[in-house]
Each structure stands twice: as structure tokens, then as C-alpha cells.
Design goal:
Helix 3 (46-59) packs across helix 4 (78-101) and helix 3 packs across helix 7 (150-167). By secondary structure, the protein is mainly α. The two termini are 35 Å apart. A two-stranded parallel sheet has the order 1-2. It has helices at residues 2-15, 25-32, 46-59, 78-101, 111-116, 118-128, 150-167, and strands spanning 39-42, 107-110. 57% of the residues lie in helices and 5% in strands. The mean pLDDT is 89.
Length: 168
């Protein structure tokens, strides 16, 4: 997660077990994780990402699983969605800068594609990581259900409708 990377790197530096204080971020990470590979998961639809996060922040429900319920109802909050949208964009910028600064080409996974073709994307990740599954291996089905529903679609319509006059 982008919001952890700088803190994590600082902690690695403080241990002095993985390099010198002035070593590059990438050198520290490679010393700590010799087989390190990067997978960049991002979402094309940043507005939907922001809506999901706004709902999760309000409801306390970050993933929909059996026996998990909301701690509070979520209500449309344009300011909160704006804040979540800005954070999503900032976090993607943080990772893009990290990859660029370190001349890295991560394996890219798009959330929307993962939801549409879970098994295909996961098998692509395994290939990227050079993980060979046994011939008869099957992937465990997803436990977490997508939060996106009619309420998310309604919030998206409301957000876009209220943004339209400002865009002109």
C-alpha cells in the first residue's frame, strides 16, 4: 500500500540490517527480499474506487464476507468521495514515481480485469512470479464479494450529476 511504503523503508533503514542509511530504496528492498518482484494493482475507475472507500469508511465494512455486517449506514457524502478520489490518485502517483525512479516495470493488474477474470489474472501473476502450479491444482474461489452494487451506481450518478455544472 502506497501509504505504508515510506514508513516501511524508514524502518528497514533503521534496522541497519539491509544496507546503509544512504542506500537507495530499491537496494534496501532487494537486500531484504532477494527475490523481490513488483505487482502493481490499480483500478481504472478511480471514482468507483473512491465511492467504495467512502462507503467502507462510513460503514466499517471494507470487504463483504459472510457474517460481516455494517457498523453504521453509509450516506452519500460528496466531500468524502472527493477526499477518497484525491487519495486514490495520490497513491497511484506515489507508486508510479517509485517505479519510475527505480527504473522498474512491475506486473500490472487492473482491479476491473481481476474481477472479470479472476483465475486468468491470478495465473498471470503466478507466471510473472515463476510459480508453477501442480497439474491438477485449482484456485480457491473468491471469498470476498465486490462491494459495487446499485447504491454505488446511484452514488456515481449523483456525483457526476452534481459535478457537471462545475465542469462547464
Amino acid at each position: 500500500m502506497a501509504w505504508y511504503v515510506n514508513d516501511f523503508l524508514e524502518r528497514l533503514r533503521q534496522t541497519r540490517a539491509f544496507g546503509q542509511a544512504d542506500d537507495s530504496d530499491l537496494l534496501l528492498l532487494r537486500n531484504a527480499f532477494p527475490q523481490l518482484r513488483f505487482i502493481h494493482i490499480k483500478r481504472r475507475n478511480k471514482l468507483r474506487q473512491a465511492i467504495s472507500k467512502a462507503r467502507a469508511l462510513q460503514s466499517g465494512l471494507y470487504k463483504i464476507q459472510p457474517h460481516k455486517t455494517e457498523s453504521a449506514p453509509a450516506a452519500f457524502d460528496r466531500a468524502l468521495i472527493n477526499r477518497c478520489l484525491k487519495e486514490a490518485e495520490e497513491r497511484e502517483t506515489t507508486w508510479n514515481a517509485f517505479f519510475h525512479r527505480n527504473c522498474l516495470e512491475p506486473f500490472h493488474v487492473e482491479y476491473e480485469e481481476l474481477c472479470q477474470d479472476y483465475e486468468g489474472v491470478i495465473r498471470g501473476v503466478f507466471d510473472f512470479l515463476h510459480i508453477v502450479l501442480p497439474r491438477r491444482a485449482t484456485l480457491v474461489p473468491l471469498i470476498t464479494k465486490r462491494q459495487s452494487d446499485e447504491l454505488s451506481a446511484e452514488w456515481e450518478r449523483r456525483y457526476l450529476a452534481s459535478a457537471a455544472p462545475h465542469a462547464l
